[in-house]
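Convert to structure. Protein one:
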Amino acid sequence: MVDMDWSTPTGLAAIKAHLTGRIDGWQQPVAWAVGISSATSDPSWQWPHVNAPGGSHGLAAAILATVLRHDGSTGTLAVSPGQLAAAVEGLAPAEACTQLEHANLGVWRGLLAEIEGNPARELVAVFVADLDDPLSSDADGEMRATFEDLHPRT
């Protein structure tokens, strides 16, 4: 990917296409996020940034899925700090494209700092391929609850 253009939206789209072409059975998730367990004994998850339905978040999803060896299907996956650091490293060149915000990158860096400060916390990635898919975990349900009122089903 060294020859690819990280500085334009068109270049980032080409990089996404390259990456997703290498993932067997890839399906672009309609929604996804990386969450962190609560810093207290509360069993809930915190979602600093949810890539909700209708968003344009394809490259970050492709990079995270590549690191996790996931195909984008609905599922909940444990994420190690090392895996998230690899995703940050993979996505960081996209900052060369100043025309776009890189919300996932900023959030991921913040999550790594949180984990470093409290290693008892856990990270999880939730991918939702189709909003009609059954929940894959409690974390999935909590993530979907962050946007369900914004995207009612008909």
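Protein two, convert as well:
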Amino acid sequence: MKNLISIAQKLDRIWRKAYIVWSYNVHKILNRNFWSDFDLTTPATPEEIRSVLKVTWEIWSKYWTLIIKEWWQAFEITTFRKDIWTVNHRKPAEVIFTEFLEEDAIRRDFTFNAIYYDILEDRYIDPTWWIKDLENWTIRFVWDINKRLDEDILRLLRYIRLKNKYGLNPADNRYDDIIRSRISELENISKERIKQELDKMIIDKTNIKALNDLKDLGFFRFFIPHIDNLSLTPGWKLMHKEGNVWIHVLLSIEALNRMKIKDIDIFWATLLHDIGKYSTYSYDDFGNVHYFRHELEWVKMFDDIISKDMYFSKKSARKISYLIKNHIRVWTIEQMKKIKANRFMMDRYFEDLITLYDVDNIWKYPPDLECGPRLKKMHEEFKIRLSKTDFLNWNDIIKMNPSLKWSMIWYRLKQENDKILSRI
């Protein structure tokens, strides 16, 4: 707080206030004891901010969000403003600065985001008496929900995320119906922006509630419909007691939460790992359901997801694809030939693969609680042996076989290194 007071004092010298908005106020009013960002706002113009504070960067320079640095700590600060919105439901066409806190407040999305904490006077400014919404554990759109969504339809996803993150109740029982009727408008938003909001939702410990809300409100009908089909996919009664695959997936994600995993790619892999089951399930003569080669069917589906429904970086796509393609194969590693098993364990995502296996397997009946730890121990021992092993390189092969044709050097290098790998 010392650096924030310093910032406020510097702005006060030019007769400008500094206020904290957003998550800090929410956490403080709700007595939530966890880390939050300090988002600042002020009536000072960008030029005035630069005159007294060290500006290190500008985000979306057209909309004047500045990054300032006070000692070692960086903060975002914006000038009070009024937005004039475009028809693309995403970004304002024009920003008009204002000196009036009340005008800045009414352009915000939710009422708890329109509460201002005066740093120097140590008090809240609540221009429209919206602190009572937080005290009543209520989430409310500022004034009219439809107008707020007209300005930025992405607020629809922010509503789902923040409602669950803070455990709030909707101020109006019509919210869900309105959101359900407008959720298709998200197709006008870039996939990258939607994925950013979903990432925040999925990595949070309240992800189960948020995912159920997304499903109930029809999000998956327009984005990743394969997920919508999971509740229509029967579970394998001999090994799964959950009832359907959607419940199994949610329980697997809950297991990730308990393990305190923070890798978003593992969460996505867990969410998507069984989407191939809907198109592959069949019943045998005894009424038991089977999903033959569903993990390979998933690979085809994932190509559709990353090309049509969602944005994944190349690195994330490769990792998620590897995890799902091999999430069944991993438990057979103990029966593989040594060189094949060693190649398998050399993949940089192998440890994550064991994690996915663990959360997928824990809900089976009966669960094999020994396989995961056994695979982890096997992998740790392999890594130790691997670290003590020297492999040959291109020059080594040339020295060993000076008369070898260039076209054969790579083949011989692989051959020799495979021999070494098989001995590890």
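The domain at 1-136 is CATH 3.30.460.10 (Beta Polymerase; domain 2). Residues 371-387 form the longest helix (17 residues).
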